[in-house]
Amino acid sequence: SYEEKTHIEWAVEILKLILAEGPKSAAEVKKEATQAGLTDKTLRRAREKLGIKPRKRDFKSGWMWSLPHHEDAQESQDAPSKNEGNLGGNGHLRHTGPETL
């Protein structure tokens, strides 16, 4: 229906705003979306429309959501953590190429 489509388009815009700064935990996204008046169903549809694929950064952290173009940018922009050095989890040098925005 037209009304449902409008709700999803609104939800897409809200989700873009929530994730504009970069990846956030699924729990944080859901909390902010609920505060903005989105239902779980509408949030899920907006996530699918934007092509957001929840991912885990590691075994300890929960699910993270990020806009598709942020995932790639985040991979190359992440500064190594103190205990990680310049090697990624697989022992290879991390990619530190030019920023792509």
Descriptive report:
It is a single chain. With 101 residues, the protein is mainly alpha-helical. The chain contains four helices and three strands. The chain has helices at residues 2-18, 26-35, 40-50, 68-77; strands at residues 24-25, 55-56, 63-65. β2 and β3 form a beta hairpin. Mean pLDDT is 79; it is low at 76-88.
Strands in their spatial order, largest beta sheet: 1-3-2
Largest sheet: 3 strands, antiparallel
Helicity level: 40-55%
| Rg over C-alpha atoms, rounded to the nearest angstrom | 16 Å
The H-and-E topology, N to C, reads as: HEHHEEH
Structural class: mainly alpha
Which key phrases capture this entry?
three-stranded antiparallel β-sheet; elongated; mainly alpha; 4 helices; single chain; about 50% helix; 3 strands; about 100 residues
What's a quick, concise take on this entry?
It contains 4 helices and 3 strands, in the order H-E-H-H-E-E-H.
